[in-house]
Amino acid sequence: MDVTKAQHPDSMVLASVKIELSNADIAIDKAKKTYELTELSDLGLARGVKIAFSSSKIDVKADNGTVPLKGQTDMKASVEFSLLERYVPLIGQIMKGIATVKIIPGTKGKKIDELNAGSAVKDKRYEFKHPNYDGERPENIVIKQGTKTLTSPTDYTIEKGAAGTWGYLFTAAGDFDPAKAATVEYEITPIKAYSLGKGSGGVVQPISMRLTNKRKAQDGRIISRTFDFPYGFYDGEDSIAFKSKNDADTVAEVAMKFEFSPHPDLVLDEDFEPFSLYRETPEV
User: Fold this and answer.
1) What pLDDT does 70 receive?
2) Measured distance CA(42)–CA(85) in Å, rounded
3) pTM exceeding the 0.70 threshold for the entire prediction
C-alpha cells in the first residue's frame, strides 16, 4: 500500500544535462552580490555525468583533555563524465596549458556563397560560410547580381564581427536589390587538419563549468536547474576507450574529470563565500 507521495515533484532532477565549459574569467557583480560564468561553450554528447562533493576533516587529538576542535574544511567538488565526441580543438580548450593545438592549412581556393532572392536585406551583416584557417579576411571578394558586379564600399562593406568572424553588409544606399539572387565569390585557405601535442607538459589553466538540466514541470512549463562551478581544473587523464565493431554500442568514449575548489576571488566576501565553490539554481 502506498503511504506517501512526492512532496516536491518539480524539484526532482530528471534526464541528462548540458555541459558547458569556459576558460574565461567569471563576471563578478559586487553591487548585486552575484557572479556569472562567461564565454561558455557546449562540450557535446556525454555519458555518466556525475557530481560529487568532498571535504577534508579536522580532528584534533589532545593527550591531556577533550578534543578542542572538530569540523570540516577544504570543501571540493568533482565532475566526471565520458564524452562521445573527440574534437581536438575542444580537447585543447579543456586541457589548456598542458596541451597545444595547431591548425594545418589546406589548399587555397575559390568559394561561392549563394543568396536566394529575398534571403538577404540591407544593413544586416552576413558571415562568409567558409572561413580562412587562421581567421584572416577572405581575399578577392566579388559579389554579383546577375551580370552586375557590386562595388565596395558603395554597395557593400566587409566587416569583422565581435566573435572574430568576417562578413559583409549591404549598404542602405547601395545598388544591392534584396528581391534578386546574388553570389558571393571569394578565396580562402581552409583547415586541413588539427594537430594535438602535449610535449613536456605545463600548468593547466583554470576553468569554470555549468551543467543545465531542463524538463517539463507539472503545469507544462519548461523549468531548468543549473549547477555552476566557478573555479576548477582538468584533473583526469586523456584516455580513449575504443570498442569492437561487433559491439552493439560502438561509440568510443573519452573520459573526463574535473576538480573544483572555492573561487579565490569570492572566498573573502561573506556574501559570495557560501557560493564560491558551487551554486545550484532550481526554477520553481
Assistant:
1) 62
2) 11
3) yes
